[in-house]
Amino acid sequence: MSIKLAIVAVLLSVAAALPVAAQEGPTIPQYWDERERLSAPDISQFERIRFLTTNDFPPFNFLDGMGRPAGFHVDLARAICAELDIADICQIQVIPWEELETALEARQGEAIIAGLAVTAETRERLSFTRPYLRFPARFVVQRGSTLTEPLHQTLNDRRVGVQEGSAHEAMLRDYFRDARPVTYARQSWMMRDLREGKIDAVFGDGVRLSFWLGGPETENCCRFAGGPYLSTEFLGVGLAIATNRQNEELARAFDYALREISVNGRFAELYLRHFPIGFY
């Protein structure tokens, strides 16, 4: 094994161990050190804290049967407000995706909780909390598959479906060089071939794959194998709440609340409520 592949194997093992949970039950992603202590910044100067979000990305953001904002992001915002004891001044407003940053800049809201990408460019304009959710890459295989960890070894010469031109294709080729990537233009074609046994595995976004595993079209054919695999290089740093740079103290207050929610179990409740087939 080359030095780089040896390092990759160690990194993947560490990534797989990041979430903390009992092996028998659902694995809850845990990004906070319980020994860490954060101070809650004084945000008493804010007369209103309005979270801006969208309504077109369930289960993160959508409108319920009564036309009210709902979803993981909405529940997370409410949990943050409850933790900071500011529920009476917290609001949630749904606006189109393309208007989020403009509305924040115009001070029509104090925070964006909608999956805005954390990049070098957006960091120049906005302050961000620490990531509250990261999207791992996962393998899906047929239920009877013998593929097990360490997959960088057992995938040797196996046909692995992956979306053409995606970050997951680049990650697969770099991290699992002995696999045989089979690229697809459409996920539906790829998942059909997996179900029919034409490929040995699929590699892709754990969230999307968890939705597929929970759908009727799987016919209970398949399961996750190995992982999860986290990579800032290929998959980014994850989801974070954005504020104006002038409101840095608000982002730090959200960090405090996110840490407390994670440690006291509230985050686990929200995760299991909205993601019944966990992607970790």
List keywords for this structure.
single chain; 280 residues; alpha/beta; D-Maltodextrin-Binding Protein, domain 2; 2 domains; five-stranded mixed beta sheet; three-stranded parallel beta sheet; 11 helices; elongated
Task: Give the arrangement of secondary structure elements.
Layout: H1 3-17, E1 49-53, E2 62-63, E3 69-70, H2 72-83, E4 90-94, H3 100-105, E5 111-112, H4 120-125, E6 126-128, E7 137-142, H5 151-154, E8 159-163, H6 167-175, E9 180-184, H7 187-195, E10 201-205, H8 206-213, E11 222-229, H9 232-235, E12 242-244, H10 248-264, H11 266-274
Parallel strand pairs: 1-4, 1-5, 8-9, 8-10
Antiparallel strand pairs: 2-3, 6-12, 7-10, 7-11
Task: Tell me what you see in this structure.
This protein folds into 2 domains: 49-134 and 237-274, Periplasmic binding protein-like II (D-Maltodextrin-Binding Protein, domain 2, 3-Layer(aba) Sandwich), CATH 3.40.190.10; 137-235, Periplasmic binding protein-like II (D-Maltodextrin-Binding Protein, domain 2, 3-Layer(aba) Sandwich). The chain has 280 residues and is an alpha/beta fold. The strands form 4 sheets. A 5-stranded mixed beta sheet has the order 9-8-10-7-11, with helices on both faces. Helices cover 35% and strands 18% of the residues. Mean pLDDT is 90; it is low at 1-23. It has helices at residues 3-17, 72-83, 100-105, 120-125, 151-154, 167-175, 187-195, 206-213, 232-235, 248-264, 266-274; strands at 49-53, 62-63, 69-70, 90-94, 111-112, 126-128, 137-142, 159-163, 180-184, 201-205, 222-229, 242-244. Helix 2 (72-83) crosses helix 10 (248-264) and helix 2 (72-83) packs antiparallel against helix 11 (266-274).
